[in-house]
């Protein structure tokens, strides 16, 4: 299979994440420090999350079956959140993230979600460009606070 055929397969193969995808997705997140992956987001936790959110968590595989892009998302009534979005380095700048974003937003709409929020590291300019081009904008007057339990 040519590199072009593999790339075409990736670009059209977004699908809901399954528990079988979790090890590959965690591997991708661990290899991408900009995703702010936390080690407590393990197979068990993500499996429990997928039981409620597999439709809005998405993956894309290349022609060899390897996960090359993923989104982990969740919803709370009419609000949604995107926790992680990652694309393998060799597939960046090939519009996989845009496809994942579009598919995830469509799944949110099907759930009745009206607003989606996410967090981006201040120095991750590529992510800011992606999310801005996808219609997201900074939230004025709010600060992000968090605490691990």
Tell me about this structure.
Residues 12-149 form the N-acetyltransferase domain. Keywords: Acyltransferase, Transferase. Pfam families: Acetyltransf_1. It is an enzyme of class 2 (transferase). 36% of the residues lie in helices and 19% in strands. It has 149 residues and is of the alpha+beta class. It has one domain: Aminopeptidase, CATH 3.40.630.30. Strands 1-2-3-4-5 form a five-stranded mixed β-sheet. It is globular, with a radius of gyration of 15 Å. The model is unreliable at 1-8 (pLDDT under 50).
Descriptive tags:
149 residues, disordered N terminus, Aminopeptidase
Short structural summary:
This protein is α+β, with helices and mostly antiparallel strands. It has helices at about 5-10, 20-30, 45-55, 95-110, 125-135; strands at about 15, 60, 65-75, 80-85, 115-120. The termini are far apart.
């Amino acid at each position: 299979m040519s590199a072009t055929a593999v790339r075409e397969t990736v670009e059209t193969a977004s699908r809901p994440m399954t528990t079988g995808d979790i090890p590959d997705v965690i591997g991708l997140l661990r290899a991408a420090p900009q995703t702010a992956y936390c080690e407590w987001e393990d197979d068990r936790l993500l499996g429990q999350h997928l039981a409620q959110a597999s439709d809005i968590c998405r993956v894309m595989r290349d022609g060899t079956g390897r996960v090359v892009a993923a989104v982990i998302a969740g919803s709370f009534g009419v609000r949604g959140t995107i926790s992680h979005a990652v694309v393998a380095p060799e597939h960046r700048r090939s519009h996989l993230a845009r496809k994942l974003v579009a598919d995830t937003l469509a799944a949110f709409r099907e759930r009745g979600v009206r607003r989606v929020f996410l967090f981006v590291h201040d120095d991750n300019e590529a992510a800011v460009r992606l999310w801005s081009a996808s219609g997201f904008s900074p939230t004025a007057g709010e600060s992000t606070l968090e605490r691990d339990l």
